Amino acid sequence: GDTAADAVSTCHGQTLNIGASTAANLQYSAAYVADKKGYLKEEKINAKTVELGGGSETLQALAGGSIDAAATTFAAVVTAVNKGAPLVAIASTANRNTADIGIRSDKAPAAGADLETAIRALKGLRVAVTSPGSGSDQTLRYLVKSSGLDPDKDLSIVATGGASETVAAFARGSVDAFVIGPPASYIAAEQGDGEVALKLASGVAPSLDNLLYGTIVTSERTLAEKRNPLRCYVRAIDKAVRYIHDHPAEAGDLLRPQFEGQMSDRQFALSWTSIVQSTPASAAIVPAEALKAAKFVEVVTGAGRIDAEKAYDTTFTKDLT
Amino acid sequence: MNVMAVGADSERRTDHPLIEFDHVGMIYQGARQSFVAVDDLAVAVPRGQFCCVVGPSGCGKSTLLNMVAGLLEPSRGTVRYDGAPVQGPNTRVGYVTQKDNLLPWRSVRRNVGLPLELRGVGKRERAERVDQMLDLVGLAGFGDAYPRELSGGMRKRVTLARTLVYEPEVILADEPFGALDSQLRTVLQDQLVRIWERTRATVVFITHDLGEAVALGDRVVVMSSRPSRVVLDRTIDIPRPRDVFSVRFDPRFAALHEELWAALSPEIEGRGRA
Amino acid sequence: MNVMAVGADSERRTDHPLIEFDHVGMIYQGARQSFVAVDDLAVAVPRGQFCCVVGPSGCGKSTLLNMVAGLLEPSRGTVRYDGAPVQGPNTRVGYVTQKDNLLPWRSVRRNVGLPLELRGVGKRERAERVDQMLDLVGLAGFGDAYPRELSGGMRKRVTLARTLVYEPEVILADEPFGALDSQLRTVLQDQLVRIWERTRATVVFITHDLGEAVALGDRVVVMSSRPSRVVLDRTIDIPRPRDVFSVRFDPRFAALHEELWAALSPEIEGRGRA
Amino acid sequence: MSVIAGPMEAEAAMPAEALEADGRERRLRSRRYRIVVITTRVLLVAAVLGFWQAGSGTIINPFWVSSPSRIVARLATWLGDGTLWANTVATLTAMALGFTLGSLAGVVVGFTLGRVRFLADVLTPFVIAVNSLPKLALAPLFILWFGIGLQGKVVMTSLVCFFLVFYNTFAGARDTDDELLGVVSLMGAGRRDRLIKVIIPSSATWIFTGLRLAVPYSLVGAVVSEITASSEGLGHLLKTSANTFDTAGSFAAIVVLVVVALVINIAVSKAEGLISRWK
Amino acid sequence: MSVIAGPMEAEAAMPAEALEADGRERRLRSRRYRIVVITTRVLLVAAVLGFWQAGSGTIINPFWVSSPSRIVARLATWLGDGTLWANTVATLTAMALGFTLGSLAGVVVGFTLGRVRFLADVLTPFVIAVNSLPKLALAPLFILWFGIGLQGKVVMTSLVCFFLVFYNTFAGARDTDDELLGVVSLMGAGRRDRLIKVIIPSSATWIFTGLRLAVPYSLVGAVVSEITASSEGLGHLLKTSANTFDTAGSFAAIVVLVVVALVINIAVSKAEGLISRWK
Ligand SMILES: Nc1ncnc2c1ncn2[C@@H]1O[C@H](COP(=O)(O)OP(=O)(O)OP(=O)(O)O)[C@@H](O)[C@H]1O
Ligand SMILES: Nc1ncnc2c1ncn2[C@@H]1O[C@H](COP(=O)(O)OP(=O)(O)OP(=O)(O)O)[C@@H](O)[C@H]1O
Ligand SMILES: [Mg+2]
Ligand SMILES: [Mg+2]
Which positions fall inside the ABC transporter domain (chains B, C) (predicted)? Predict the structure, then answer.
């Protein structure tokens, strides 16, 4: 009822603890841009970053009240919510899967091969994902199933634990292929004599396109207690998403210094392209995209119907569109 | 039935002996089999008596003292102290164990001072009594040494000092002078008798030296080898005060020694000579 | 200068004594201060001799045996064994230590069998010799017991058996009979003398019992209290073979006993009686 | 007046009977004691489980803690479809190998450094240094050097066990009575004899404490390396469950781990009991 | 013929001098020994570093192992901009608190269970069960219960220390000579006296071994909880470096950890030395 009042509410320097992964990941570009461009200041919100290991830690920290919001995949949110987790996605930061699939040079399909060919090339190989049940694992399983293979039989999926571990495993030859986001994908390809065969962000997999991928998630508790600061934060994120979408080159230049020394110019450029390609026009959650993400989870887990509705809340972004 | 009456001067209370073994048996559960160390023993020690115990090695003398101290529970019968069965450590007795149970991390002085410390005796008085005691056992100057730095005989003397220093009601002593040269032994025997005469403590004193038993005791109990029984219970009627240096020349000394020897001899005869 | 000549029958080689203390000194570094336990000692024990050592408690007797065994390095001078300085554990000696150093995790039988085991004696022969030895020290039937299950005297006997069983060239014995009743003591003295007469081992035997020293030894060395020196070195001229049961009635026995006592007395006089 | 009585002749036959009676009573008492102990344990477990079951869904969100009934159901499923067996075997293999290798190395190095003072003095800082490295942070290097399969897990597990056993063995070797060693040397014991016949038995309590410490840690080591990198094992199961927010699955895996740890610990205790009969 | 000589009178004044000389020689010998030990250590370190520096970029890919010079450079940077100090303090705070709390609890519970047999018999399986839980897998629950700040780290660290100290204290308490305890009881020692005057001193070696074990593990515990979730500390630094493929940074953080572990270990040794002077 007080939507109008919410719309004009401003914040007064309240603090929000935001969870983020420590990985050299451009996944959080929106949050970085919101900071670098001064959008957080404009909204008078103080966002303090807390770095966390992975998806489950992040959601647990949210539930325990250690953090107020975090950037994570919608697939994780929807899975958790359907298991009873008191969580809600409140903004969209990516609407396309950004994972890359890399493969050993001698096993790689010819350049420019289509999705089907590239996936079939994985048959019989050992493929690295970061962690069982994680985004990379789910993506791989989805694609493999979609091309009519059995992820448990036709290839062997190996969890490595993280980005640097994937690079190490590929460099040593413990795996023949990997599914991971940029820039780790490029670093792995370089260290391990392989190539990035498939960039999902480029739109090669229509079924993974136009689906809610990256989100800002919060807990029901924070939602009840810090509604106003969350609103300010989402507005800042929205501004950042729009900036990236509308001014990709400037945004890239803005972020480049942050990753100085962590990746080469080429790696950054390639990664940034993926981010731009997956960044939506605004942070508004599109219900259809959320539904498509839920379908993705259904296929991956094969555990029956997944309800997407409970997992997101559009009230924060409704008036932004 | 060999029930004997022993005339002893129970000075304070006469209704019951201070220490009483009431048909006590001790059966040790060994690794493979169990065996009887003490078999239905009945002995009583009245208050104030200096009672010496002799017997062959391994017959169960230490076992008896452990029971009086409450460190060991008899398998059968009851050990009574001052009329009540002994249950758990009997803090009214002082025990000079056969092995020197010193605390290796404490200096000699702090080892001897331990019982005083536990009884809340003040620091100054403690230091004084400890020093006096160390002097008595010939260890003046070794107060700061650790047990590791002492010879076997010196360690045994520290154990003795630790028990005498707090003047317990009963002194149980398991071969306290065994590791000492004969001279020092005589000196300490003399000291012990003097202390006993002054404090009128009850003493149960195990020794392998028959002469020592006769010289010190009001009574000598001779035990048989396992399963152990009392083979002789002899009152030593040499009058007090005695001088341990000259008592050996008392005419009764030789006779008593002879009698004890005779009682003990069959117990060991043939053993080892086979 | 008190350099004395001792006529001893070095049977095999006569060029040098088997054990020789060449102006040996031992200074212990204590916690706070260091002190002199042995001061410039020079003694030699010829091959085959039964040498008894007596001296006040804490004078350094065990220290000397430890040096011969190579468990302790002298601070000054040299201890020579068969002509060569002792360096590291001297495996040619058998040592009955003052404390019973048994291996608590081994049964009595396996404790006594240990030196045979180490010398590669076969299982059957080992069992035989061990059983014979246990019998000798009166512990037949206790072969399967663990040290924890033995009395103090029994443990000491196991230590003795463990040394005698492998018939070492030299037997160092530190009060081996201290914890035993007089009867058993006499029996074992007798056995020891028989074994010695048969094997002609060299024996260095510490005791606090002057009678024992006279009854057993070819020679008795009397030591002073710290810093320890030799105050008397007496050849025991009672002829062999001796019977330990009756040697006490030998006319020379009393005189020798008296002489030793006199030598030892000033060393302890006044101590503790102050 | 005091009374002294010798044994009554009528009771000369006592010992045999007494022994019987004594033994029976002793056995009875110890059996009664064991029953009390086990009952108390069962009651404790029942209380915790009861509280958990009752609280789950009422005062606690089952999303976080699941409930005993769900966990049991999950275990039954896993047992039925072979998941449980396959993964337990995978973890146990890694654990057993790692435990064995690590403990062996710990014992050997512990004794070596414990008895050779110079080596100990020189190497101690290095041992501490290596031990204070957070193995989790070295995961990439581990993967690079040892891969992700069994080998990696075994290396990780044995590293964890090694230090625990090493420290305790080292302390035990140092704690050996030098007098005992000296006396045994005199009897002709060489370096090897001293080690085998004196130092090892006298350090037994220490070693077993180290081994007992190492049991849970070896399991943890194997599981942690499965959590970080693996394609099978209880750790993998645990991580998969955690990542898919399947709390019942996580707890089911943990239950299996605990049971395994308890069983192995009982085995170690039994071994120690056999070896320390002399105590 | 054998010769026996008493002390020569001329040397009556020997002892005093001898003492002097002996003490001097002893000091000299021990100093020489320490120099040899330290030299050997330095040479070993130099060899490793030299090999590392030379090999990095030639036979090993510096992407994985960086090189000593780069690590030193990184440390210098961190030292200059305050990164090092701030993060070290954060980790040390967590570690110190966790170590203290965990070790204390370990000692207290260890003594309690070590001397009260019934409690020990009932609780042992539970202790093992809790200890065999992989704490890493429980990280989410820890975060839920204790948050991500200091509290969470301290709980994790003290849990790790607790078990190490507990097991050793328990074994030490059990190992106390019962005869000694009995004799001291006779002198009038109560429960408390026995604990303080006998059980604790006699378990000192065990406790110190536990503490020494706990030092590196407490550091690892603090670092691991920083690796899973944190915004500061050496673990954070380590994880950030690792995730950004900054090997020099990772190793620099590890060097700091090792130095911290060594320093603390020296402190524990000194404490033990002071307390065990009687040995
Ligand atoms: N803990 C035990 N377990 C089994 N048997 C034991 C135990 N303690 C003592 N014994 C046995 O009980 C008997 C008596 O032992 P005890 O120590 O009382 O003898 P003792 O008379 O003091 O001998 P000694 O004069 O040699 O000290 C011995 O035969 C011994 O083997
Ligand atoms: N490790 C040590 N550190 C310091 N002093 C020691 C050490 N060992 C022995 N001493 C001292 O050396 C002296 C001689 O000790 P030793 O054990 O040789 O005496 P002993 O003649 O065998 O005495 P006892 O007859 O009592 O066994 C003693 O005064 C003792 O205090
Ligand atoms: Mg005894
Ligand atoms: Mg001695």
Answer: 19-250
**B119 interfaces chain E, CB cutoff of 8 Å:** yes
For the beta sheet containing A126-129, the strands, ordered from the edge strand earlier in sequence to the opposite edge, are A156-159, A126-129, A177-180, A100-104, A194-199
Mean pLDDT, range C21-47, rounded to an integer: 84
Say which residue, A172 or B47, is predicted with more confidence. B47
Å from CA of D98 to ligand 4 middle: 49
Q: Do C138 and B271 touch (CB under 8 A)?
A: yes
Averaged pLDDT, A114-132? 87
Q: Give me the helices (H) in chain C, please.
A: 61-69, 108-118, 123-136, 152-164, 182-199, 210-216, 251-268
- Contact residues, E window 130-149, toward A, CB-based 8 Å cutoff: 139-141, 143-145, 147-149
Which of D186, D193, D201 lies nearest to residue C69, judging by beta carbons?
A: D186
Question: What phi and psi values does residue B195 have, to the nearest 5 degrees?
Answer: -60, -45
Alpha carbon distance C92, B246 (integer Å): 45
Q: Which atom of ligand 1 sits closest to the CA of residue B208?
A: 25
Q: In terms of CATH architecture, what is C19-92+169-268? A: 3-Layer(aba) Sandwich (3.40)
> What does the pLDDT read at residue B123?
93
pLDDT over threshold 90, residue C126: yes
Positions in chain D whose pLDDT score sits under 50: 1-16
- Point out the residues of chain E with pLDDT beneath 50: 1-16
What is the model's pTM? 0.83
Terminal-residue alpha carbon distance, chain B: 33
Domain ranges of chain E: 7-55, 68-278
Closest to C138 (Cα-Cα) out of D278, B265, B58, B207: B58
Ligand 2 site, residue C61, Cβ cutoff 6 A: yes
Ligand 1 binding pocket (C-beta < 6 A) is: B 28, 30, 37, 55, 57-63, 98, 226; C 148-154, 179
Question: In this predicted complex, what is the ipTM?
Answer: 0.82
> Which helix (H) or strand (E) is C26 found in, with range?
strand C19-29
Nearest CA to ligand 2 atom 31: B150
Residue C224: which pLDDT band, with cuts at 50, 70 and 90?
confident
Q: Is some CB atom of chain B closer than 8 A to the CB atom of E193?
A: yes
Residue in E125, E171, E254 nearest the CB of D133: E254
DSSP one-letter code for E170? H
Whose C-alpha lies nearest to ligand 2, atom 1?
B149
What confidence score (pLDDT) does residue D14 get?
A: 39
Residue nearest atom 2 of ligand 2, based on CA coordinates: B149
Q: Do B5 and D277 touch (CB under 8 A)?
A: no
Give the model confidence (pLDDT) of C245-273 as tens digits: 888 888 889 899 889 888 887 654 444 33
**Nearest-angstrom CA–CA distance, D96 and D214:** 11
The reply to whether residue D14 touches residue B17, judged by beta carbons under 8 angstroms, is: no
Average pLDDT rounded to a whole number, residues A144-158: 88
Q: Does residue C58's CB lie within 6 angstroms of at least one atom of ligand 2? A: yes
What percent of chain B shows pLDDT beyond 90? 48
Residue closest to D45 by CA, chosen among D255, D208, D231, D229: D255
Q: Residue B30's pLDDT is what?
A: 64
Mean pLDDT, residues A193-215 taken together: 86
Residue in chain C lying closest to D277 (CA): C105
Specify the residue with its C-alpha closest to ligand 2, atom 25: C57
- pLDDT, one tens digit per residue, over E36-83 is 988 998 999 999 999 988 888 777 777 778 889 989 999 999 999 988
CA dist A64 → A67, C213, C271 (Å): 8, 84, 77
Architecture of domain D68-278: Orthogonal Bundle (1.10)
Whether omega before B227 lies within 30 degrees of 0, making that bond cis, reads yes
Range(s) within chain C of domains with CATH label 3.40.50.300: 19-92+169-268
Average pLDDT over residues B91-117: 92
